[in-house]
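Hi support team,

I'm opening this ticket because the web form for multi-chain structure prediction keeps timing out on my end. I have pasted the exact lines I submitted so you can reproduce it. The total is 494 residues across two entries, so I didn't expect it to be a heavy job. Is there a limit I'm missing, or should I split the entries? Thanks in advance, R.K.
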Amino acid sequence: MRRLLSNKIFLVLMLTLLIVAIIIMSTIPGSPIHGLTSPASFVIDPMQKGVKSAGEGFSDFFAAISNGMTIRKENEELKAEIAELEYQVAQGEEAIRRWEELKEAFLIKDTFENYLVVGASILTREADEWFSVIRVDLGENDGFVLAEGDSYAVVDARMNLVGRIMTTDPESSKVLPLLHEGFSVSAKVNTVNGAVVKISGETSLKQDGLCKVTRIPSTVELKVGDELVTSGQGGLFPAGIPIGVIVSVDYSSELNRTAVLKPHVIIGELKDIFIMVAVEDSTDSNENE
Amino acid sequence: MKNKILIRKIIIYALYIIILSAIQVSFSDTLILFGQVADLMLVFVIVCGYLFGTKDAIFVGLITGFFRDYYSGPALGGSPDQPSAIFGIGMLLLLYAGVLSSVLFKRAFHRKLPLAFVQVMIVTVAYKAIGHAIALGVQILSGNGSEYLSLISILINSILPQLLINLIAVVPIIFMMKYFGPYKKGINPDLSDEKSDSEAIWQSV
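Hello R.K., no limit was hit. The queue was backed up. Here is the completed structure from your submission:
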């Protein structure tokens, strides 16, 4: 046995078989293979955070030295800006109070009222063209558990769609960005009774930061500049999350009408994201009972 | 004495794998050239395989591949409604990248340091070509048609920028492997034992 293991060809063959078995098993939903990464996340995530913060500290240190003069000048400008913003905040608070009063009076419901929005920071970005899943610092230890067959919508600070949560580990979670080939979402044109279409990531468009729009009904003429939002069909994403705008259309084939969409979100520039967790409406359930 | 060498080797490899993989996925917005991220993990595996032989390549390829899968394993499994991350593709690709670089042109290159650049070029091109072939295969199998990037686009937008950025990344990695690597003087003593033509002598600039 020892002689066999020292044979490199035999070793590589055995490892290949083992890895292929792991790959096949990991494609099965609910496979225990995904649980293998959970213990690793206790070790890898803190180490990665350490390297990341060390790298950021290092670059911040040099940036601080080189930008010292600029920072001083900016500081003066920012002080003036703070005074202006404080005034605006006071006005904003007054507006919120008025909105709450009106909402109550007219029984208005917020679009995303039944969703808890939880913030998270991006830990890791893409490793290369194909290994392009994002990892965020919110995991099962934060009470964020992903049930089998479930997922959550991920948005940016302006509530634009970023992607969806794919898996969770104790210390972190994986986000499938909307440019990824594996991503698809039902969308609709942002008008009253807007047409429902499908948006998905595609390899040939990913590098330019674009997505493909398919299943465009033959009765609908999408135009460049049309905005698409989530349709809410399928129940995973709440309706009305802005996705992006149409930049080109291709109606050359009547059976395969497609368009290209430019998402509002620029994934490369994201630092923080927000996860939308559906909360059960206790008043509704009480009423039903 | 042998245990001491082994422990040193494991610690140094572990440190490099942790740091390089974390740098690649944490600062990919900085390490980018024409849309391609410097593939520090791949370059590290190639350099280790080329300089230190197949056994080291297998070990480093597997562990680095595990990190690659953990951080950003591709979502090719499941259904469109419920995509799931595939685990193991990174391990398999980096295992073969390491083994390939440890055996390819072994006799012609004699593990000479400057020729590591050539090895990185060859394995990077092979890695990208295989990656595109897999991506196209998955696209066809999942019923999304066979429309894919043109060959010119693959060459200009994917392979050439990746080659360029990987060749830049290989300079510090070779330097570190030679002077701060897992072996003293940057030479794996086991390599001279297993070969008759004493290749270790060639491991000098």
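A quick check on our side: The mean pLDDT of chain A is 82. Let us know if the file doesn't open in your viewer.
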